[in-house]
Amino acid sequence: MAGPMPPPPFTGGIRSFLYALRQSPVLPDYGVDFLDNDIPDNLRAEKCRILLTLRSLAGLLAKLLTFRYRLVHIHCSDRLSFYEKSAFMLCCRFFAARTVMHIHTGRFPGFYEQSRCRFLVRFLLNRATAIIAVSRETRQFFRQTCKSQVFQVPNCVSPIFFDSEPLPQQQRRDILFLGYINPAKGIFELLQAVKLIRKLGHHNRVLLLGGEQVPGTVDRVRCFISKEGIQGVELGGEVTPGEVAGYCRSSAIFVLPSYSEGLPVSMLEAMASGLPVVASRVGGVPELVTDEENGLLVPPRDVESLARALVRLLDDPELRLRMGRNNSKKVRDTFTADRTAEKIVEIYDKILGLS
User: Cα separation of 126 and 86, whole Å?
Assistant: First the structure.
């Protein structure tokens, strides 16, 4: 299994997913080895990226020469990540290893539609033995676009998010965002919504936790906060999974106003901790959140709808409590690391002809 597996702290759904997955004994017991091919977000200059990719590729080739793996499971996103990991996949095929491309992003259909090299994207997808999608939407896209086998595997959360009870809702005041500090995550819409709820008398602290993918984005956010005079917003940077769990347990609402999503791990972590959710109705989010049952869904880029949803939950502790309980039960029943690992092993068995 090849993917980004840096030590904490880190930002990113694939990293969080693999961190959780590696805590389950299911994959090691099956005989799965792990190869870290992480590219740090602060080393995304072209030369650094090429060198790190070549180093990871050399590590994979060394393993293929030494162990002659029957199957290699590669985790990736879209754009450059997809092309880089496709090079890994082609090397594996040269060594007669079956390959699984696990594509975590909900942006892939848009990436494909906007690409000038669709034929190349289809060619690479068709070279994989199997594709794993994280949502029904992307699973349907891959089934219509390529000839490889397509499976769907849900994301999962680390066991630390189930370890202790959250604070009572009456003691929980913070609004929590977790993910890349990125305009595509709806950060600026969220800040504008915070400005609106301040005018309505809600002065809850807003925590923005996560690193930046594009250098300078955090500075842009700080400048926007200062220019608009928005009080009570804190940028906490990258944090460890244990720290994330602590912030989740003490927060009142989780908010994720993204323009696109796959099946966000950050949302699952918040749900596991008993938080109600306010999120954009995009990608795989509606597979996790049923409007009015365990959260409130709003249109992407709609500042007023986002503000109304936040105010509604802030004004109704009982609604937050009910939604939070529904979320905690849903994640415990379906999105644990062991359950996800077992589904992955079932796919391995099918690919290897063992079932």
Answer: 11
The fold for domain 2-156+336-351 equals Rossmann fold (3.40.50)
7 DSSP 8-state letter: P
Distance, CA of 328 to CA of 121 (rounded, Å): 38
Return the CATH fold of 159-334: Rossmann fold (3.40.50)
Of the candidates 29, 49, 38, the residue with the CA atom closest to the CA atom of residue 75 = 38
The model's pLDDT over 132-164, given as tens digits with 9 standing for 90+, comes to 999 999 999 999 999 999 999 999 999 999 876
> Which ranges of the chain would DSSP assign to H, the alpha helix?
13-21, 26-30, 46-67, 79-94, 108-114, 118-127, 136-145, 187-199, 217-228, 241-250, 265-272, 285-288, 303-314, 317-334, 337-351
Q: Provide the pLDDT for residue 284.
A: 96
- For the chain, how many residues are written? 355
Residue ranges of the chain assigned to CATH 3.40.50.2000:
2-156+336-351, 159-334
Q: Given this model, what pLDDT does residue 170 score?
A: 67
Residue 16, amino acid: S
> Which pair of structure tokens corresponds to residue 281?
């109705």
Residues 6+ apart with CB under 8 A from 39: 4, 48, 49, 52, 53
Q: Kindly report the backbone phi and psi dihedral angles of residue 354, in degrees, each rounded to the nearest multiple of 5, phi listed first.
A: -95, -5
Tell me the backbone φ, ψ of residue 27, rounded to 5 degrees.
-70, -45
> If you search the block for the tokens 């608009």, which residue do you land on?
228
pLDDT digits (tens, 9 = 90+) for 305-325: 999 999 999 999 999 999 999
Give pLDDT tens digits for 74-90. 999 999 999 999 999 99
Q: Is the separation of the CB atoms in 167 and 250 below 8 Å?
A: yes
| Distance separating alpha carbons of residues 125 and 89, to the nearest angstrom | 10
